[in-house]
Amino acid sequence: MTIATTPSPAQRMPDLSGQTVVVIGGSAGIGLETARAARAEGAAVVLTGRNPERVGQAATDVGARSTAAFDAVDPARLESFFADLPTPIDHVLVTAGGPYYARVPEFDFDKARGALDAHLFLPIRIAQLAPDIMRPGGTLLFLGGTGGRRPTVGAFASAATAALPALIAGLAVELAPIRVNLLAPGFVDTPLSASLLGDQLDARRDELRATLPIGRVVGPEDVARLAIHLMTNTALTGATYDIDGGQQLVS
């Protein structure tokens, strides 16, 4: 008589074994943590970032296969990067670019155009470049946020954030069978958050610990785990996935 057994967690095959994950904006924060998680799941990882030293250190940290240092919103450099990638690739995560906040009297149109390049035009450029070298069923993952759900001072950032779900849904239809999804964090405790908040960072952390339903601050590793799930669950495409610890429920 043969008795079926369930493999223990130690015997589980890595979910991304034999696959290649490209992280654009992978030298810190969410990108770096996702690269680390992808390596743990058996993937080869390619990292990019603007700062050569930081991306080199990140690559050493996670054991990346290769790196490239460039500004992702530079169309020529982005095209060259994708042309030089060994093929095929399976998943691309884009975390490059940060939000632009400004009240109307201080609004800088050049900085706003740069933010549009990073948040709306960069996904389209990657949608043009990546599919030709991706395996069917692979994933394009982009980073948005939950801030566009409510009116706020500095409304441009909210407007740019709110536009992303519609763009991602349309790309998912057009690029199928490649899957396209959007990660939408609230506050995440990253170096970017620290640079934006400065000496207000600790107060913000304390406020969130006291008010969020989860009782703690969301970290980049939380978002990374969601990113890996979206890469491995082939039923998911065209959707926006909130990960804010319940921040929208109490704000």
Describe the structure in your own words.
- The protein is α/β, with parallel strands linked by helices and 251 residues long.
- It has one domain: NAD(P)-binding Rossmann-like Domain (Rossmann fold).
- It is 44% helix and 17% strand.
- It is built from nine helices and seven strands; from the N terminus they run E-H-E-H-E-H-E-H-E-H-E-H-H-H-E-H.
- Strand 4, helix 4 (109-129) and strand 5 (134-143) form a beta-alpha-beta unit.
- The mean pLDDT is 90.
Give a short summary of the structure.
With 251 residues, the protein is an alpha/beta fold. Helix content is 44%, strand content 17%.
How does the SSE layout of this entry go?
Elements: E1 20-24, H1 29-40, E2 44-49, H2 52-62, E3 66-69, H3 75-84, E4 89-94, H4 109-129, E5 134-143, H5 155-175, E6 179-185, H6 191-197, H7 201-211, H8 220-232, E7 240-243, H9 247-250
Mean of residue pLDDT? 90
Residue fraction in strands: 15-25%
Strand order, main sheet: write it out: 3-2-1-4-5-6-7
Count the domains.
Answer: 1
CATH fold-level topology = Rossmann fold
Largest sheet data: 7 strands, parallel
The shape, in one word, is: globular
Low-confidence stretches: none
How many strands in all? 7
Helix and strand run? EHEHEHEHEHEHHHEH
Please tell me the CATH architecture by its name: 3-Layer(aba) Sandwich
Separate helix tally:
9
The CATH superfamily title = NAD(P)-binding Rossmann-like Domain
* CATH C-level: Alpha Beta
Tell me the span between the first and last alpha carbons.
59 Å
Helix content: 40-55%
Structural class, please?
Answer: alpha/beta
